[in-house]
Known about the structure:
In chain A, helix 2 packs parallel to helix 11 (273-285). Chain A contains eleven helices and eight strands.
Amino acid sequence: xxxxxxxxxxxxxxxFLAVKNxxxxxxxxxxxxxxxxxxLQHFTGTLDNWDPAVTDALAERGxxxxxxxxxxxxxxxxxxxxxxxxxxxxxxxxxxLGLTKCDVLGFSLGGxxxxxxxxxxxxxxRKIILVATAPRGGEDIMHLEKPSLARFLQDPSFKGYTIxxxxxxxxxxxxxxAGEAFVNRLQERxxxxxxxxxxxxxxAQRMAFRDWETFTGKRFADLAAIRQPTLVVNGIHDEMIxxxxxxxxxxxxxxxxxxxxxxxxHGSLFQFHESFTQQAKAFLASNSPFxxx
Amino acid sequence: MKAVSSYTHETVPTxxxENGGxxxxxxxxxxxxxxxLLCLGYYNSNMDAWDPAVTNGLAADxxxxxxxxxxxxxSxxxxxxxxxxxxxxxxxxxEALDLNTVDLVGFSLGGxxxxxxxxxxxxxxxxxxxxGTGPRGGEGMTFTELSPEEQADxxxxxxxxxxxxxxxxxxxxxxxxxxxxxxxDDRDRPVSRDSAVAQLAAVKEWGSIPASGRYxxxxxxxxxxxxxxxxxxxxxxxxxxxxxxxxxxxxxxxxxxDSSHAAHYQHAGLFLEHVKLxxxxxx
Lengths: 293, 283
């Protein structure tokens, strides 16, 4: 098949990589001169939750690698209860692929995993994109029980993608319309789809969030060790992980820029996919030795 | 003016235009055809204080107009003691120049004037670029007069207030100060003491917290807006940029790390790239 057809999260086949005792599901597509871009997914998200409008545009500059962490979708194993455990899985996966350096786009939970990986193995990333996420010791991280989120999550009339549209997007008409377009794009992939995450996945990941909110020593001081050029992105009205967390990231990361989008929530990168992918491409293409990137 | 102007920040002559008995000094250069970027400067500054790296960069894709508002630098008239009064002068200038639409680039005080003008004459403004500025009644916007030491050594003042204490930021600050000297001839006139006093009154009035409806008018500024701020801005606290982004319905926010009031000069190359992306997405 010509690459133009498969260089999309709508069509790219799911592949499997055996590492130690686990088998990880992933998709790898696209091409170009730039380093591969690893995608790390949000709470309960599978490979199918990556918006083709984002992955496909970024696959034009270099390969993209969508990674399914242990215990999610068709990846074997158990979902770790800590971000550190998830980071170990992702590093084992990259080792299995033979990749010693890549770029990363971590969204929400995936952004925490990306930070942990950069801490544990500083050489692994060239550049980092952190979307709608929080530093260790951040606050109000994924408290799904709070009324602003529970009203959608605990309402039986909302299901699956409708919930995603409600909680990833602002309540305005324009943001909800973008949310609808987003969930439609997610459903363009018809075959070779991943099983939806169950309650056990959610429970383990929520434990990881609670742990991520704790910290020892000086709050946010650990961020000084992440020296990679970092682009931090957030919707201005993010109920799931408020933008104050992104602000702390830019405050304490030595080489970061914050980009915030209006009229949007957790899924700002999907709502403004055109602008976001242009910004991300410019960021990833730049070779400036000076901070910030 | 239809042809591409070969003038640069360094060579463009200062022109004068009269309206209502006031001669406004301005410089116009760059690539005409679209709405010009009308640049409104910070407290106590004239046209020479714009960074040539930024103005020349903007001029590659846009027409650029630098303006001395009434009573500032080479312009005639008296500087009004309110932002609203200053916005009226900018409007008078636009009318005199026959500009139907402009993109406003406002730095600090200039960003306050830009917000006011967008409220007063929404159809005149296409896009807003707000640099190191804050909303009316923002957080900690209690400005004080420059100390005698600050007035005596403007370079030390710039390096201290516009750049962070880090080595990288200070080096960027020195480079900026050097760039300001690149225009050799036809320099602007210094800002008078009277004008500075009126400007201080204006920013203080803008910074005072209203009795009710704090930030309420921001929802009426629906223009595509780019808010740019340094995360260590000691002149206008960075929280003000967040407040702008939160309350303006159509604003993108960009915050640069390790930078103060002149974040957009410290990171001039990146800032130009961000402006380019913003101008493209807004059209």
